[in-house]
Amino acid sequence: MGAIGNSCVHLAFNNPLENGVVLMKNKSSCKLMVPSNSFKVKRISCKLSESGVEESATSNKVSNSKNAMEDYNTVMKRMMRNPYEYHHDLGMNYALITDHLIVGSQPQKPEDVDHLKQEENVAYILNLQQDNDVEYWGVDLPSIIKRCKELEIRHMRRPARDFDPDSLRSGLPKAVSSLEWAISEGKGKVYVHCTAGLGRAPAVAIAYMFWFCGMDLNTAYDTLTSKRPCGPSKQAIRGATYDLAKNGLWKEPFESLPEHAFEDVADWERNLIQDQVRSLRGT
């Protein structure tokens, strides 16, 4: 679905300090930059009124948006060590990973939920954002949740801190638990998102594919990133795998293990991981 007219999204930066990085307090619009021909971006955009008054009122916000865009993407490139950028003004974008799983950026308005329901048969939305992420981008989350209820879409939240591999590691088991449950229900596709759909959301999808689909970590990682170019933390996924598979008091610290440890697991370890993840349902 293409953009509708000129898009305009107002972003509120309410938390100027995240993970020790100063973020500018102004308004922003951003877009996702990926290698050409890598995947088809689905876009939902709001239409800007053509009145001269409204365009004049937004001109200063547009000029300020470049600084805010650079701030956010500079942080993402440094903390995640990948070349990708999030550009909010292109609207929601996503990629179909499996027949049951979609990974993308945040829905920005109720109409995005309508699109997911009508065009993609989405029955579940798994949101990995913290409250301050939503506030940062000026998204009206209550209106999105309300629309989900009206369309009988189950909206779930498993917050993890952005640009924080340790937070992602600790949150992966519960997030994958929600994802695995939703897929097992079989009522429709599951839409997993964070803010940009480049870190937390793909990590959850990759962990699910690793733990429940019989893939090793690298196969799951390559499968997803071939469809949605992004750079989620392999270390966070490896760490979460280790936490689930080696839960005895005798275990050695994960940090002391070889660099590629827990990129694959034995069948008995995968069964243990699956049992532990399923036990987290409803927590």
From TrEMBL:
According to its UniProt entry, one GO biological process term is: starch catabolic process
Q: Which UniProt keywords apply?
A: Carbohydrate metabolism, Hydrolase, Protein phosphatase
One GO CC term of this entry?
chloroplast
Q: Where would I find the Tyrosine specific protein phosphatases domain in this sequence? A: 170-229
Q: Which SUPFAM superfamilies match?
A: (Phosphotyrosine protein) phosphatases II
- According to the entry, every stretch annotated as the Tyrosine-protein phosphatase domain falls at 93-250
- Write down the superkingdom of origin: Eukaryota
What PANTHER family does its record include? DUAL SPECIFICITY PHOSPHATASE, SUBGROUP, CATALYTIC DOMAIN (PTHR46642), PHOSPHOGLUCAN PHOSPHATASE LSF2, CHLOROPLASTIC (PTHR46642:SF2)
Record's protein name: Phosphoglucan phosphatase LSF2, chloroplastic
